[in-house]
Amino acid sequence: MLTGTSIELRTTKASMLLRGVKWLMSKKKPVFPHTPEEFEAYMAARPLPKDAAIPDQFKHRYTLEHWSAADQEVVTIHPKSGPGEWHMLYFHGGGFVLPMFKEHWPLAAAMVDQLGVSVTLPLYNVVPESSYASQDALADAVYAKLAANHDPSRIVLNGDSAGGHMALSLALRLAKAGGPQPGKLALFAPWLDLTMADPAIEAVEPHDIMLKIGTLRSCGKMFAGDRDFASPECSPLYTAKEDLAKLPPTRIWTGRHDLFIIDSRTFTGKLRDAGIDAKLYEYEAAPHVFMAVTPTKESKDTLKLLGEFLAE
Asked: What PANTHER family is this protein classified in (predicted)?
Protein backbone atom coordinates (compact mmCIF):
# COMPACT_ATOMS: atom_id res chain seq x y z
CA MET A 1 0.00 0.00 0.00
CA LEU A 2 1.14 3.55 -0.63
CA THR A 3 1.79 5.81 2.30
CA GLY A 4 -0.80 8.44 3.10
CA THR A 5 -4.53 8.06 3.36
CA SER A 6 -5.61 9.70 0.10
CA ILE A 7 -4.02 7.21 -2.35
CA GLU A 8 -4.17 3.43 -2.08
CA LEU A 9 -2.45 0.92 -4.34
CA ARG A 10 -4.90 -1.99 -4.67
CA THR A 11 -2.85 -4.35 -6.85
CA THR A 12 0.89 -4.71 -7.36
CA LYS A 13 0.64 -6.46 -10.73
CA ALA A 14 -2.00 -6.99 -13.38
CA SER A 15 -4.06 -10.17 -13.11
CA MET A 16 -3.51 -12.84 -15.75
CA LEU A 17 -6.89 -12.11 -17.33
CA LEU A 18 -6.20 -8.39 -17.52
CA ARG A 19 -2.79 -9.04 -19.05
CA GLY A 20 -4.46 -11.15 -21.71
CA VAL A 21 -7.03 -8.47 -22.42
CA LYS A 22 -4.29 -5.84 -22.74
CA TRP A 23 -2.42 -8.04 -25.24
CA LEU A 24 -5.56 -8.44 -27.35
CA MET A 25 -6.24 -4.71 -27.19
CA SER A 26 -2.70 -3.96 -28.36
CA LYS A 27 -3.32 -6.04 -31.50
CA LYS A 28 -6.56 -4.30 -32.45
CA LYS A 29 -7.16 -1.00 -34.16
CA PRO A 30 -7.09 1.68 -31.43
CA VAL A 31 -10.33 3.30 -30.32
CA PHE A 32 -8.67 6.67 -30.87
CA PRO A 33 -6.05 7.16 -33.61
CA HIS A 34 -2.61 7.66 -32.12
CA THR A 35 -1.78 10.99 -33.80
CA PRO A 36 -3.71 14.27 -33.90
CA GLU A 37 -3.61 14.25 -37.70
CA GLU A 38 -5.14 10.77 -37.91
CA PHE A 39 -7.74 11.68 -35.31
CA GLU A 40 -8.82 14.83 -37.13
CA ALA A 41 -8.97 13.00 -40.47
CA TYR A 42 -11.07 10.25 -38.90
CA MET A 43 -13.48 12.71 -37.33
CA ALA A 44 -13.89 14.63 -40.60
CA ALA A 45 -14.80 11.52 -42.57
CA ARG A 46 -16.68 9.35 -40.08
CA PRO A 47 -20.35 8.39 -40.50
CA LEU A 48 -22.86 9.64 -37.95
CA PRO A 49 -22.06 7.63 -34.80
CA LYS A 50 -24.65 5.38 -33.15
CA ASP A 51 -24.90 4.12 -29.58
CA ALA A 52 -24.36 0.42 -29.01
CA ALA A 53 -27.74 -1.26 -28.66
CA ILE A 54 -28.89 -2.35 -25.23
CA PRO A 55 -28.50 -6.16 -25.00
CA ASP A 56 -31.72 -8.10 -25.56
CA GLN A 57 -31.33 -10.08 -22.34
CA PHE A 58 -31.62 -6.89 -20.30
CA LYS A 59 -35.37 -6.90 -21.02
CA HIS A 60 -35.69 -10.08 -18.97
CA ARG A 61 -33.05 -9.42 -16.29
CA TYR A 62 -34.05 -5.88 -15.32
CA THR A 63 -36.85 -3.36 -15.31
CA LEU A 64 -36.03 -0.85 -18.03
CA GLU A 65 -37.22 2.70 -18.49
CA HIS A 66 -36.68 4.46 -21.82
CA TRP A 67 -37.25 8.18 -21.60
CA SER A 68 -35.91 11.47 -22.91
CA ALA A 69 -34.55 14.73 -21.57
CA ALA A 70 -33.34 17.79 -23.47
CA ASP A 71 -34.48 15.97 -26.64
CA GLN A 72 -32.00 13.14 -26.08
CA GLU A 73 -32.43 9.48 -25.16
CA VAL A 74 -32.03 8.19 -21.61
CA VAL A 75 -32.14 4.62 -20.26
CA THR A 76 -32.68 3.65 -16.63
CA ILE A 77 -31.94 0.11 -15.44
CA HIS A 78 -33.62 -1.04 -12.23
CA PRO A 79 -33.14 -4.36 -10.43
CA LYS A 80 -36.06 -6.72 -11.00
CA SER A 81 -36.83 -6.42 -7.29
CA GLY A 82 -37.54 -2.71 -7.70
CA PRO A 83 -35.69 0.63 -7.66
CA GLY A 84 -32.45 0.61 -5.70
CA GLU A 85 -31.86 2.58 -2.50
CA TRP A 86 -29.11 4.39 -4.39
CA HIS A 87 -29.66 5.80 -7.86
CA MET A 88 -26.55 6.15 -10.03
CA LEU A 89 -26.39 8.71 -12.81
CA TYR A 90 -23.70 7.30 -15.10
CA PHE A 91 -22.05 9.07 -18.04
CA HIS A 92 -20.23 6.86 -20.53
CA GLY A 93 -16.80 7.76 -21.83
CA GLY A 94 -15.57 8.23 -25.38
CA GLY A 95 -13.79 11.56 -25.45
CA PHE A 96 -17.11 13.42 -25.77
CA VAL A 97 -17.03 12.41 -29.44
CA LEU A 98 -17.85 8.68 -29.37
CA PRO A 99 -21.23 7.14 -28.51
CA MET A 100 -22.07 4.39 -26.02
CA PHE A 101 -19.68 1.44 -26.35
CA LYS A 102 -21.00 -2.11 -26.16
CA GLU A 103 -18.71 -2.60 -23.13
CA HIS A 104 -20.61 0.01 -21.15
CA TRP A 105 -23.77 -2.09 -20.95
CA PRO A 106 -22.13 -5.02 -19.07
CA LEU A 107 -20.47 -2.53 -16.72
CA ALA A 108 -23.83 -0.94 -15.94
CA ALA A 109 -25.36 -4.41 -15.47
CA ALA A 110 -22.58 -5.42 -13.07
CA MET A 111 -23.26 -2.35 -10.92
CA VAL A 112 -26.98 -3.13 -10.82
CA ASP A 113 -26.33 -6.78 -9.97
CA GLN A 114 -23.56 -6.32 -7.42
CA LEU A 115 -24.58 -3.05 -5.78
CA GLY A 116 -28.37 -3.24 -6.02
CA VAL A 117 -28.50 0.28 -7.44
CA SER A 118 -30.63 1.71 -10.21
CA VAL A 119 -28.49 3.13 -13.02
CA THR A 120 -29.51 5.91 -15.39
CA LEU A 121 -27.44 6.31 -18.56
CA PRO A 122 -27.88 9.41 -20.74
CA LEU A 123 -27.20 8.58 -24.40
CA TYR A 124 -25.97 12.06 -25.14
CA ASN A 125 -25.39 13.67 -28.50
CA VAL A 126 -21.69 13.67 -29.32
CA VAL A 127 -19.30 16.36 -30.50
CA PRO A 128 -18.76 17.74 -33.15
CA GLU A 129 -22.14 16.79 -34.62
CA SER A 130 -23.60 18.34 -31.47
CA SER A 131 -21.94 20.52 -28.79
CA TYR A 132 -20.88 20.60 -25.17
CA ALA A 133 -23.93 22.78 -24.47
CA SER A 134 -26.24 19.97 -25.60
CA GLN A 135 -24.41 17.48 -23.36
CA ASP A 136 -24.58 19.82 -20.35
CA ALA A 137 -28.27 20.50 -20.95
CA LEU A 138 -28.99 16.77 -20.93
CA ALA A 139 -26.95 16.17 -17.77
CA ASP A 140 -28.74 19.00 -15.96
CA ALA A 141 -32.19 17.86 -17.08
CA VAL A 142 -31.63 14.22 -16.16
CA TYR A 143 -30.34 15.10 -12.71
CA ALA A 144 -33.26 17.46 -12.10
CA LYS A 145 -35.75 14.70 -12.90
CA LEU A 146 -33.95 12.14 -10.75
CA ALA A 147 -33.68 14.56 -7.82
CA ALA A 148 -37.40 15.30 -8.08
CA ASN A 149 -38.26 11.60 -7.76
CA HIS A 150 -35.46 10.21 -5.59
CA ASP A 151 -33.75 11.39 -2.41
CA PRO A 152 -30.82 13.48 -3.76
CA SER A 153 -28.63 12.33 -0.89
CA ARG A 154 -28.97 8.83 -2.35
CA ILE A 155 -27.91 9.84 -5.86
CA VAL A 156 -24.32 9.07 -6.86
CA LEU A 157 -22.81 10.71 -9.93
CA ASN A 158 -20.45 8.46 -11.83
CA GLY A 159 -18.78 8.13 -15.21
CA ASP A 160 -15.67 6.91 -16.98
CA SER A 161 -13.05 8.96 -18.83
CA ALA A 162 -14.86 11.87 -20.52
CA GLY A 163 -17.94 10.63 -18.70
CA GLY A 164 -16.07 11.15 -15.43
CA HIS A 165 -15.44 14.71 -16.57
CA MET A 166 -19.18 15.08 -17.24
CA ALA A 167 -20.13 13.73 -13.81
CA LEU A 168 -17.64 16.03 -12.08
CA SER A 169 -18.69 19.05 -14.14
CA LEU A 170 -22.33 18.40 -13.27
CA ALA A 171 -21.44 18.16 -9.58
CA LEU A 172 -19.61 21.49 -9.79
CA ARG A 173 -22.54 23.19 -11.55
CA LEU A 174 -24.93 21.85 -8.93
CA ALA A 175 -22.68 23.02 -6.11
CA LYS A 176 -22.54 26.55 -7.53
CA ALA A 177 -26.29 26.67 -8.14
CA GLY A 178 -27.33 25.40 -4.73
CA GLY A 179 -30.44 23.30 -4.38
CA PRO A 180 -30.54 19.50 -4.03
CA GLN A 181 -27.02 18.06 -4.08
CA PRO A 182 -25.96 14.49 -4.95
CA GLY A 183 -24.80 12.37 -2.05
CA LYS A 184 -21.58 11.07 -3.56
CA LEU A 185 -19.26 11.34 -6.54
CA ALA A 186 -17.49 8.32 -8.08
CA LEU A 187 -15.08 8.70 -11.00
CA PHE A 188 -13.63 5.92 -13.17
CA ALA A 189 -10.39 7.08 -14.85
CA PRO A 190 -11.68 10.66 -15.24
CA TRP A 191 -10.34 13.09 -17.83
CA LEU A 192 -9.54 16.10 -15.67
CA ASP A 193 -7.30 18.30 -17.82
CA LEU A 194 -8.07 18.57 -21.53
CA THR A 195 -4.68 20.20 -22.12
CA MET A 196 -2.70 17.27 -20.66
CA ALA A 197 -0.23 19.85 -19.40
CA ASP A 198 1.63 17.95 -16.68
CA PRO A 199 5.00 16.82 -18.13
CA ALA A 200 4.91 13.74 -15.86
CA ILE A 201 2.23 12.30 -18.18
CA GLU A 202 4.90 11.74 -20.85
CA ALA A 203 6.47 8.96 -18.78
CA VAL A 204 3.16 7.07 -18.71
CA GLU A 205 2.41 7.44 -22.43
CA PRO A 206 4.51 4.48 -23.65
CA HIS A 207 2.52 2.18 -21.34
CA ASP A 208 -0.95 3.42 -22.37
CA ILE A 209 -2.24 1.24 -25.20
CA MET A 210 -5.35 3.37 -25.76
CA LEU A 211 -4.58 7.05 -25.25
CA LYS A 212 -1.96 9.44 -26.62
CA ILE A 213 -1.29 12.99 -25.46
CA GLY A 214 -1.48 14.72 -28.84
CA THR A 215 -4.73 13.02 -29.82
CA LEU A 216 -6.32 13.91 -26.49
CA ARG A 217 -5.36 17.57 -26.85
CA SER A 218 -6.91 17.67 -30.31
CA CYS A 219 -10.05 15.97 -29.01
CA GLY A 220 -10.20 18.36 -26.04
CA LYS A 221 -10.09 21.39 -28.31
CA MET A 222 -12.89 19.92 -30.42
CA PHE A 223 -15.03 19.47 -27.30
CA ALA A 224 -14.21 22.90 -25.87
CA GLY A 225 -15.53 24.68 -28.95
CA ASP A 226 -15.42 28.44 -28.44
CA ARG A 227 -14.12 28.12 -24.87
CA ASP A 228 -10.56 28.09 -23.57
CA PHE A 229 -9.85 24.39 -23.11
CA ALA A 230 -7.43 25.24 -20.29
CA SER A 231 -10.16 26.99 -18.28
CA PRO A 232 -11.66 25.32 -15.19
CA GLU A 233 -14.94 25.05 -17.09
CA CYS A 234 -13.26 22.73 -19.59
CA SER A 235 -10.50 21.29 -17.41
CA PRO A 236 -11.88 20.79 -13.88
CA LEU A 237 -8.39 20.01 -12.55
CA TYR A 238 -8.00 23.81 -12.31
CA THR A 239 -11.19 24.42 -10.34
CA ALA A 240 -10.74 26.91 -7.50
CA LYS A 241 -10.35 25.54 -3.99
CA GLU A 242 -13.51 27.26 -2.75
CA ASP A 243 -15.54 25.52 -5.46
CA LEU A 244 -13.97 22.12 -4.82
CA ALA A 245 -14.89 22.52 -1.17
CA LYS A 246 -18.58 22.26 -2.13
CA LEU A 247 -18.29 18.79 -3.66
CA PRO A 248 -19.66 15.63 -2.00
CA PRO A 249 -17.45 12.75 -0.81
CA THR A 250 -15.47 11.50 -3.82
CA ARG A 251 -13.71 8.29 -4.87
CA ILE A 252 -11.54 7.86 -7.97
CA TRP A 253 -10.29 4.65 -9.62
CA THR A 254 -7.45 4.78 -12.18
CA GLY A 255 -4.93 2.31 -13.60
CA ARG A 256 -1.22 3.06 -13.57
CA HIS A 257 -0.94 2.42 -17.33
CA ASP A 258 -3.46 5.18 -17.96
CA LEU A 259 -2.39 8.70 -18.95
CA PHE A 260 -4.97 10.09 -16.54
CA ILE A 261 -3.25 8.65 -13.46
CA ILE A 262 -1.06 11.73 -13.03
CA ASP A 263 -3.94 14.21 -12.96
CA SER A 264 -6.00 11.83 -10.79
CA ARG A 265 -3.28 12.04 -8.14
CA THR A 266 -3.07 15.82 -8.38
CA PHE A 267 -6.83 16.23 -8.23
CA THR A 268 -7.18 13.93 -5.24
CA GLY A 269 -4.65 16.08 -3.40
CA LYS A 270 -6.57 19.23 -4.30
CA LEU A 271 -9.81 17.71 -3.06
CA ARG A 272 -8.21 16.74 0.24
CA ASP A 273 -6.69 20.20 0.56
CA ALA A 274 -10.18 21.66 0.08
CA GLY A 275 -11.48 19.53 2.93
CA ILE A 276 -13.27 16.91 0.84
CA ASP A 277 -13.47 13.25 1.85
CA ALA A 278 -11.59 11.99 -1.20
CA LYS A 279 -9.56 8.90 -2.07
CA LEU A 280 -7.82 7.53 -5.16
CA TYR A 281 -7.50 3.80 -5.79
CA GLU A 282 -4.67 2.77 -8.14
CA TYR A 283 -4.13 -0.52 -9.98
CA GLU A 284 -0.68 -1.51 -11.17
CA ALA A 285 -0.36 -1.95 -14.98
CA ALA A 286 -4.11 -1.52 -15.45
CA PRO A 287 -5.16 0.25 -18.68
CA HIS A 288 -7.66 3.02 -19.26
CA VAL A 289 -11.16 2.22 -17.92
CA PHE A 290 -10.06 -1.27 -16.88
CA MET A 291 -13.22 -1.67 -14.78
CA ALA A 292 -15.22 -2.16 -17.97
CA VAL A 293 -13.56 -5.58 -18.29
CA THR A 294 -15.96 -6.90 -15.69
CA PRO A 295 -14.64 -10.49 -15.28
CA THR A 296 -11.23 -9.26 -14.07
CA LYS A 297 -10.08 -9.16 -10.48
CA GLU A 298 -9.44 -5.44 -10.84
CA SER A 299 -12.97 -4.66 -12.00
CA LYS A 300 -14.50 -6.77 -9.23
CA ASP A 301 -12.37 -4.96 -6.66
CA THR A 302 -13.50 -1.60 -8.04
CA LEU A 303 -17.16 -2.51 -7.65
CA LYS A 304 -16.53 -3.92 -4.16
CA LEU A 305 -14.97 -0.62 -3.10
CA LEU A 306 -17.78 1.34 -4.75
CA GLY A 307 -20.30 -0.71 -2.75
CA GLU A 308 -18.41 0.03 0.46
CA PHE A 309 -18.37 3.72 -0.45
CA LEU A 310 -22.14 3.77 -0.88
CA ALA A 311 -22.59 1.91 2.41
CA GLU A 312 -20.56 4.45 4.43
From this structure: AB HYDROLASE SUPERFAMILY PROTEIN C4A8.06C, ALPHA_BETA HYDROLASE FOLD-3 DOMAIN-CONTAINING PROTEIN-RELATED
Is residue 64 in a domain? yes
Q: CA 8 to CA 91: how far, in whole Å?
A: 25
Q: At what angle do helices 297-311 and 16-27 cross, to 10 degrees?
A: 110
Please, which residues have CB within 8 angstroms of residue 94's CB and are 6 or more apart in sequence?
Answer: 100, 101, 126, 161, 162, 163
Please give the biggest Cα pair distance in the chain.
Answer: 50
Q: Is 159 helix (H, G, I), strand (E, B) or coil?
A: strand
Backbone dihedral angles phi then psi of residue 283, each to the nearest 5 degrees: -130, 120
Strand order in the sheet with 184-188: 7-11, 278-283, 250-255, 184-188, 155-160, 87-91, 118-123, 72-79, 62-69
CA distance 69 to 75: 10
Q: Is 291 exposed, middle or buried (0-12, 13-18, 19+ CB in 10 A)?
A: buried
The answer to the question of residue 2 being in a domain is: no
Whichever domain contains 20, its CATH number is 3.40.50.1820
In a domain, 1, yes or no: no
Over the stretch 200-224, which tens digit does the pLDDT of each residue have? 999 999 999 999 999 999 999 999 9
For residue range 9-39, list pLDDT tens digits in order: 999 999 999 999 999 999 998 888 999 999 9
Main-chain phi, psi angles of 75, to 5 degrees: -125, 130
Number of domains in the chain: 1
CA distance 107 to 302: 11
Q: What is the C-alpha separation between 79 and 194, in angstroms, rounded?
A: 36
The parent domain of residue 93 ranges over: 7-311
Threshold 0.85, pTM exceeds: yes
227 in Cβ contact with 234 (< 8 Å): yes
